[in-house]
């Protein structure tokens, strides 16, 4: 047995795969090229209808000591990940989506931080269009090098991804973690539970994952105008909110509601013009359930225009919300200075019925 196998625990990387014949090879090549060793790769072919299963089998045949393949009926991403975890044998656990790639030193970097006593480690990511890499500024802000628990760094709940993390399998099992089945956006409820359950987690600033953004719009995160997408989004937000409410720390709860859960709402607000009555009703019901009453989205970290749109949604003012989003699509919304500070300039709306909090532009925005 080599020094590396004695010195380092086995890492299992679970790779769920569905109809990714054009991408799977690149993902597996990146995992085979990891500087961390030893690595066990568990590919779960989730009932693919293309040649994904054959690609996985060919890699397993070429690397029988490193790659295992499960062929299952199609049950979705969460179920596929759970199936992979069940057969994984490593003391460490990670996840990679089959159309993405993992930089060569990613697990090495996270392992060095994990050895300091963390239950798991999370790193930054880069969005990747197949050619250009771009690290989101908000991810860079969330990932200073540190060891922490959730009360010290609640903003980390905004790091909702499954695949930029390295877990101790012992912690995963003790926390009774698994991925929700039959729902999209399954990452957030589980990663939230991990952060809440951890005695100490590690954070590294390194980019440890390249997240492919498909230009054909086929990613599930690019289909926000559908009722199914919005229902799943509300469901996973509510699951996440329930976990943090049970945790019982007011600061963590406030950060979750104002910074984390609100963070992606602008993407849904852009879908308001032309939306169906059913989609609008579902959007408003979800907004009121999380931010109704004195918890208004006007208190959130959304940009000024989207805070105003959130207020209009809360009030059921659909026509004005549509008008605002159409105007925003044409270009930036103007601003006007007042003795009390800067406000959005929206003469096309009934400003007399809009509270200052809905129009306010904060310093630095």
TrEMBL record:
Residues 12-170 form the Glycosyltransferase 2-like domain. GO terms for molecular function: CDP-glycerol glycerophosphotransferase activity; hexosyltransferase activity. The keyword Zinc-finger does not apply. Signal peptide: none annotated. It is an enzyme of class 2 (transferase). InterPro entries: Glyco_trans_2-like, Nucleotide-diphossugar_trans. Pfam families: Glycos_transf_2. The keyword Transferase applies. Its EC number is 2.7.8.12. It comes from the Bacteria. This is CDP-glycerol glycerophosphotransferase. Keywords: Transferase. The lineage of its organism: Bacteria, Bacillati, Actinomycetota, Actinomycetes, Propionibacteriales.
């Amino acid at each position: 047995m080599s020094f590396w196998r004695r010195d380092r625990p086995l890492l299992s990387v679970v790779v769920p795969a569905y109809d990714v014949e054009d991408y799977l090879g690149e993902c597996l090549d990146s995992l085979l090229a990891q500087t961390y060793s030893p690595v066990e790769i568990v590919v779960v072919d989730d009932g693919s209808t293309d040649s994904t299963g054959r690609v996985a089998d060919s890699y397993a045949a070429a690397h029988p000591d490193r790659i295992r393949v499960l062929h299952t009926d199609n049950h979705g991403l969460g179920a596929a990940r759970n199936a992979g975890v069940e057969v994984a044998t490593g003391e460490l656990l990670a996840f990679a989506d089959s159309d993405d790639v993992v930089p060569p030193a990613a697990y090495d970097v996270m392992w060095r931080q994990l050895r300091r006593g963390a239950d798991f480690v999370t790193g930054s990511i880069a969005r990747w269009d197949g050619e250009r890499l771009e690290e989101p500024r908000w991810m860079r802000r969330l990932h200073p090098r540190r060891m922490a628990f959730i009360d010290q760094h609640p903003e980390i709940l905004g790091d909702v991804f499954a695949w930029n993390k390295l877990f101790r399998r012992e912690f995963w099992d003790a926390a009774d973690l698994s991925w929700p089945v039959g729902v999209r956006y399954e990452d957030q409820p589980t990663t939230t539970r991990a952060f809440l359950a951890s005695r100490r987690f590690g954070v590294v600033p390194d980019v440890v994952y390249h997240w492919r953004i498909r230009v054909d719009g086929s990613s599930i995160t690019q289909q926000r105008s559908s009722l199914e997408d919005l229902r799943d989004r509300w469901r996973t937000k509510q699951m996440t909110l329930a976990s943090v409410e049970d945790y019982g720390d007011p600061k963590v709860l406030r950060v979750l509601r104002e910074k984390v859960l609100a963070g992606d709402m602008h993407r849904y607000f852009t879908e308001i013009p032309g939306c169906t009555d059913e989609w609008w009703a579902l959007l408003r019901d979800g907004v009121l359930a999380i931010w109704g009453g004195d918890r208004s989205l006007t208190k959130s970290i959304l940009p000024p225009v989207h805070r105003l749109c959130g207020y209009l949604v809360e009030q059921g003012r659909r026509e004005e919300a549509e008008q605002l989003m159409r105007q925003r699509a044409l270009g930036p919304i103007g601003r006007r200075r007042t003795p009390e500070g800067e406000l959005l300039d929206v003469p096309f709306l009934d400003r007399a019925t809009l509270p200052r909090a809905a129009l306010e532009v904060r310093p630095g925005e």
